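Before the break, one more example. Copy the sequence into your notebook; we will annotate it together after we see the structure.
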Amino acid sequence: MYDLTLFAVPRPFEGIYDAIQRNAIGSWLEMDVEVLLLHEPGSNVPDVARELGLPAYEIAISAEGTPMLDSIFQTAFARIDTPLSCYVNADIIVLGPLHRAAALCAQRMKRFLMVGQRVDLSLASVPVNLRDPEWRAQLEHFVQEGVLHAPCGIDYFASSGNVWGDIPPFALGRAAWDNWLVARALRTGVPVVDATAYVTVVHQAHPVPFGIRDWPECVNNYRLLAQLGDGGSAVTHAPWVMATNGEIHHRGG
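Here is what the structure looks like once it is written out:
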């Protein structure tokens, strides 16, 4: 019986995203975790899920066809039976040890949210074969060439279940929803842990639409975040920090 379930919403497995998402999911399956895939209507995600032996469930989308965060978390939490859970973006390779980090948080805290910064890396320029049994060591070598992403962009959220309560109708991948998850935990007294030093996750570079932050769904996401009021919403606002040896201490202490 696993203690942690990872859940994600892959895009359709097409073009560059087929390789990117298979890389990511392959890294998750090497950990002692359950993996649950969620998908938009009409996607080929269920076909890939069956191929990989994973469960897949449909979630609601916006009028523009974007997966909705409230539906994602409601659907996932209705089916997760492990004490710990983690939403992760489907383009994120986990070098680890995310599952051990979540367990360490659970040993220290009854309720918690664990987040961390990612490393941005273009695998197209990195000679790593993810089918090679030694791929982790190879990728770790090249991670030092990557760039640590700004703390306001967050790609995984490990927690002791649903620590947020009702989640507003954010559009996934349209800015601000990740900051809301951190801000909501902070506002309600949930201990938030920055595990950047202990957990290495790699974001695989892919195209981003020009001007996306001005799209109506982005504007609405920012409006929903603003309703929480002023305050921290980035990884570096986490009051707790996990060191490279897994010890958890108060930031600055």
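Residues 4-250 form a domain with the Spore Coat Polysaccharide Biosynthesis Protein SpsA; Chain A fold (CATH 3.90.550.10). The radius of gyration is 17 Å. Try to locate both features in your own notes.
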